[in-house]
């Protein structure tokens, strides 16, 4: 459907409705919620990466405030299996059972009047652990010793795309071994839980900082043995998700168990930064041995890759321990025409926090591996990185393009994005700039990355994985209130994406009701339709489509009532009113009559509810494919190894943008995180599995001083499969920066015959590359 | 993390402060920008915090012909903003501007930073370069400690048990003096990986995992510190 160009409709650059409360500090987060008599919870966590628990002794006098696994009667461990062949299952206990497999694993739960007292009591618990050797390196410890009894090795899943490519004869073969560091996602608001038993509703009421309340509810009910009707999950304002909050927490299960036994007394646990950093560095750690085969002109003939993903100690619910490894084999070819492809991937269990999908998921690592190797191919072929990419990207005439792994690129002009980025950053003039800089003793480089982002993919993509959920149709409810206002209820979560605005814009597009009269209700299982939540860049497409569909149905009913009130056959819906000839009746009047003066309507019309819930699927559920070209000009300080980003430019095609300001915000935030992946963020571990960073002094996040002004140029090729032509772009910004920035670094030092292979590209790594 | 249990003791006189500080496990509190986080991590567990910010003289600023005496509880922000007289041709204001971020500078104090004695912090190295003098108070009265003798080792100062820092005396740089300051760090406001300071006739290398080094030549220091000092000298001499 083509947007009409309304001032508050789809495509309008309206300011975000929700920003007023955020900017004034009036948001309401889990940490803002309190109940009279509320108790605070602290967790005693494993100080070792791997060990057998000989005993946990509760301190004398505090036995009734300390809980271990043995106390948690009737509770099931968290299980997130995958049905992929060969997947090895593991149980994650809410509180450790017999063995700990990561630093930070909860062992005991302590309840007290204050958090400080709870921590005091936790310190008094006597813990006797027999430390075991830790598996800390996915390559060295893949074969063992296994960290789970009964496993032959530490392979959680082996995913093979085993095309035999030994017959490929390529004049250019470039091989690289590349590594990406383990990261912590670091949302501004950490995790947190406030939970109590509501006797009246016979229901566990849990506030938790989540991006998928319904999935949490299902998983929690299963672990606690409660019917789902007895669990209500509420996510109030959520200060950043990024995948960190797409999980059923051990803390939620343990506290849910305890809350049932406290007769209505509420419990609160707010994760602190040290807990988060030392026990929740849970993403991004990949290793690639990649070879790109190309002809003399730089055309890709084949990609051959062996990849490893450090999956950590357990399979987190719901995405499981195999998401990234299984994804690598399907997305490594990126946006390119790749005739032959072989990829073998291993998910390896280690004594580190369980892997979670972080914004971009495997795409960030895959893009880094392929794009940096392609630049090496360009150097070997003697052509520019821009030309190499232009020769390998599918053109608009190829759309929809089905690539080697059967991904269906829905629409777009990928070469044009590359051309625009090259032109906007003046790639043609760069050799002269680089030569001039070198003459002054400065090292500058230009780097690019091109990638696509499959988003909003649904049932057909996920059902084969056999993980705890499969996304189906996404539902929304549109409810016309007696005063002519509109409530929209969605099961997705707005944790910074501006959905209270963009979804309202969709409703406005359909019904013409002013944005100020449209309320988006989300984040509460009691008030919204079931949903798998916000992840996979799906909400703009899926919830946006669902709001559109529900409003379209509501509109039909409003039209019918309007026609009756006007006593007209031919009516038109325009500007929030129904018109027939010169007469009109507003939507607000129709709502008033329906709810408060039903006697004016025929009986059949009175039973036509003005609350419509409807599910939405895209026309094909294989996903929208947004894509982008990132271009970076960077300067490298050869004496200190520091990198300065002189210019950062993005050409982004997100299809029809529901709101260009919101789209820019998504791209900018993701890019800042991608800069972190490229240059700063790394959780190192020692040989015993101890995390070596536990504060932001050691774990560096980019700040305002490290993120340059980012220029964004939009292309808007509509997706043929989504309701308004919109595409998912929520993760895009976080995908390209490591590849683009390292390509710029490598371009700056290529004349010295040097390259950076591992990220983040810290001063130490750059100095080592230059040494 | 919440700190282990402690007592808070606001004091009004130096005598009361010194008396409180003589107790086992007592620690002075100024801006709390290093102490409070380490208490939250339970890495330090003072039994009592003696709040010395409001003591007479702790926030006093006295300018003389010879230089400037800064009470130990003067904040980084006050130095940054020029709320205290400039006797270093803009050098100290420049340094203050690069300490952490503004919220920390609003509360963090020069004396607190010197007493914390983190070699990667700015002030310990700057005081050595400026030839400053620390004024300490203890049960035996006041004594003067030259900046170069201040940091004995990382996080260890020349203060004796029961002593506290009262003020810092900073000699005036000749008008028109040029200086150079090079702080190599991973991100804006972060602690230094290396510090180089060049004042007239003086070079100092800091953040070398040891007390700041007064140099006669750029040698015998880690490579990154050598880069920092070289850049500071170039800035001074530009």
Automatic annotation (TrEMBL), chain A:
A Pfam entry, by short name: MoCoBD_2
Domain Aldehyde oxidase/xanthine dehydrogenase a/b hammerhead: 24-133
Keywords: Molybdenum, Oxidoreductase
SMART domains attached to this UniProt entry: Ald_Xan_dh_C (SM01008)
InterPro entries documented for this protein: Ald_Oxase/Xan_DH_a/b, Ald_Oxase/Xan_DH_a/b_sf, Ald_Oxase/xanthine_DH-like, AldOxase/xan_DH_MoCoBD1, AldOxase/xan_DH_MoCoBD2, AldOxase/xan_DH_Mopterin-bd_sf
One Gene Ontology molecular-function label: iron ion binding
Protein name: Xanthine dehydrogenase family protein molybdopterin-binding subunit
Species of origin: Rhodovarius crocodyli
UniProtKB/TrEMBL annotation, chain B:
NAD is among the record's keywords: no
UniProt xrefs under InterPro entries: Diverse_Substr_Oxidored, FAD-bd_PCMH, FAD-bd_PCMH-like_sf, FAD-bd_PCMH_sub1, FAD-bd_PCMH_sub2, Mopterin_DH_FAD-bd
The protein's name: Carbon monoxide dehydrogenase
Record carries keyword Oxidoreductase: yes
This protein's UniProt keywords: FAD, Flavoprotein, Oxidoreductase
Top-level taxon of the source organism: Bacteria
GO molecular function list: FAD binding; oxidoreductase activity
Residues in FAD-binding PCMH-type domain copies: 1-175
């Amino acid at each position: 459907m083509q947007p009409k160009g309304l001032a508050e409709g789809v495509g309008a650059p309206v300011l975000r409705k929700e920003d007023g409360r955020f900017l004034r500090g009036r948001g309401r987060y889990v940490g803002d919620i309190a109940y009279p008599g509320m108790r605070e919870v602290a967790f005693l966590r494993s100080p070792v990466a791997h060990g057998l628990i000989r005993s946990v002794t509760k301190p004398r006098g505090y036995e009734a405030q300390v809980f271990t696994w043995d106390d948690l009667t009737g509770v099931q461990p968290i299980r997130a299996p995958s049905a992929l062949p060969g997947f090895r299952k593991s149980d994650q206990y809410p509180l450790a059972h017999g063995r700990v497999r990561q630093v930070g694993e909860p062992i005991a739960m302590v309840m007290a009047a204050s958090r400080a007292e709870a921590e005091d009591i936790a310190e008094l618990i006597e813990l006797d652990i027999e430390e075991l050797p830790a598996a800390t390196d996915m390559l060295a410890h893949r074969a063992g010793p296994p960290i789970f009894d009964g496993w032959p090795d530490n392979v959680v899943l082996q995913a093979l795309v085993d095309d035999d490519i030994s017959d490929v004869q390529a004049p250019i073969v470039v091989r690289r071994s590349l590594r990406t560091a383990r990261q912590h996602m670091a949302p501004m608001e950490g995790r947190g839980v406030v939970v109590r038993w509501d006797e009246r509703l016979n229901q566990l009421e849990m506030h938790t900082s989540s991006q998928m309340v319904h999935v949490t509810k299902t998983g929690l009910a299963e672990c606690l043995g409660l019917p789902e009707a007895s669990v209500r999950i509420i996510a109030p304002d959520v200060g950043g998700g990024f995948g960190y909050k797409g999980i059923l927490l051990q803390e939620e299960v343990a506290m849910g168990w305890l809350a049932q036994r406290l007769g209505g007394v509420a419990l609160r646990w707010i994760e602190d930064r040290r807990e988060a950093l030392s026990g929740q560095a849970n993403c991004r750690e990949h290793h690639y041995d990649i070879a790109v085969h190309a002809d003399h002109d730089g055309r890709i003939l084949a990609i051959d890759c062996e990849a490893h993903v450090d999956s950590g100690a357990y399979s987190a619910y719901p995405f499981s321990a195999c998401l990234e490894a299984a994804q690598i084999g399907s997305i490594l070819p990126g946006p390119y025409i790749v005739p032959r492809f072989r990829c073998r991937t291993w998910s390896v269990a280690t004594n580190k926090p369980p892997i979670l999908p972080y914004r971009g998921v495997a795409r960030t690592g895959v893009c880094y591996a392929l794009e940096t190797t392609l630049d090496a191919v360009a150097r070997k072929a003697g052509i520019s990185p821009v030309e190499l990419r232009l020769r390998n990207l599918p053109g608009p005439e190829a759309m929809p393009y089905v690539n080697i792994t059967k991904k269906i690129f829905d629409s777009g002009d990928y070469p044009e994005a590359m051309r625009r980025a090259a032109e906007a950053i003046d790639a043609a003039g760069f050799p002269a700039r680089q030569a001039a800089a070198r003459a002054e003793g400065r090292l500058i480089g230009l780097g690019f990355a091109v990638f696509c982002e499959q988003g909003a993919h649904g049932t057909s993509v996920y059902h084969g994985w056999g993980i705890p959920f499969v996304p189906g149709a996404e539902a929304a409810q549109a409810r016309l209130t007696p005063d002519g206002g509109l409530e929209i209820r969605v099961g997705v979560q707005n944790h910074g994406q501006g959905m209270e605005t963009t979804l309202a814009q969709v409703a406005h597009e359909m019904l013409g009701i002013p944005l100020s009269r449209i309320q988006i209700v989300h984040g509460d299982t009691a008030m919204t339709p079931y949903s798998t939540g916000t992840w996979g860049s799906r909400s703009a497409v899926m919830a946006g489509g669902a709001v559109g569909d529900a409003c379209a149905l509501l509109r039909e009913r409003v039209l019918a009532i309007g026609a009756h009130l006007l006593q007209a056959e031919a009516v038109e819906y325009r500007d929030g009113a129904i018109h027939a000839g010169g007469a009109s009746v507003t939507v607000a009047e129709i709502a008033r009559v329906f709810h408060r003066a039903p006697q004016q309507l025929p009986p059949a019309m009175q039973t036509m509810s003005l609350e419509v819930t409807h599910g939405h699927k895209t026309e094909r559920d294989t996903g929208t494919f947004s894509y982008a070209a990132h271009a970076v000009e960077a300067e490298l300080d050869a004496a200190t190894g520091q990198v300065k980003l002189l210019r950062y430019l993005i050409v982004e095609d997100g299809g029809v943008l529901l709101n260009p300001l919101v789209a820019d915000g998504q791209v900018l935030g993701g890019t800042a995180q991608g800069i972190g992946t490229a240059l700063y963020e790394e959780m190192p571990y020692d040989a015993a599995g101890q995390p070596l960073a536990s504060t932001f002094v050691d774990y560096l996040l980019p700040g305002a001083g490290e993120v340059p002004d980012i220029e964004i140029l939009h292309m808007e090729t509509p997706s043929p499969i989504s309701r308004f032509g919109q595409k998912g772009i929520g993760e895009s910004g976080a995908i390209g920066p490591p590849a683009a920035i390292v390509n710029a670094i490598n371009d700056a030092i290529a004349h010295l015959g040097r390259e950076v292979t591992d990220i983040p590209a810290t001063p130490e790594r750059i100095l080592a590359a230059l040494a | 993390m919440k700190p282990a249990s402690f007592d808070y003791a606001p004091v009004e006189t130096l005598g009361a402060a010194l008396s409180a500080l003589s107790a086992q496990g007592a620690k002075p509190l100024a801006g709390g920008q290093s102490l409070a986080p380490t208490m939250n991590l339970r890495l330090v567990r003072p039994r009592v915090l003696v709040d010395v910010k409001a003591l007479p003289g702790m926030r006093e600023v006295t300018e003389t012909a010879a230089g400037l005496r800064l009470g130990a509880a003067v904040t980084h922000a006050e130095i940054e903003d020029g709320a205290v007289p400039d006797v270093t041709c803009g050098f100290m204001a420049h340094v203050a501007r690069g300490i952490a971020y503004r919220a920390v500078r609003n509360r963090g104090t020069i004396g607190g930073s010197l007493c914390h004695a983190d070699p990667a912090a700015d002030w310990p190295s700057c005081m050595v370069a400026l030839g400053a003098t620390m004024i300490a108070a203890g049960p035996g009265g006041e004594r003067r400690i030259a900046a170069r003798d201040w940091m004995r080792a990382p996080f260890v100062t020349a203060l004796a048990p029961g002593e506290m820092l009262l003020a810092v005396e900073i000699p005036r740089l000749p008008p028109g003096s040029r200086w150079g300051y090079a702080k190599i760090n991973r991100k804006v406001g972060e602690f230094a990986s290396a510090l180089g300071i060049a004042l007239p006739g003086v070079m100092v290398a800091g953040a070398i995992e040891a007390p700041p080094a007064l140099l006669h030549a750029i040698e015998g220091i880690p490579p990154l510190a050598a880069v920092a000092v070289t850049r500071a000298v170039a800035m001074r001499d530009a």
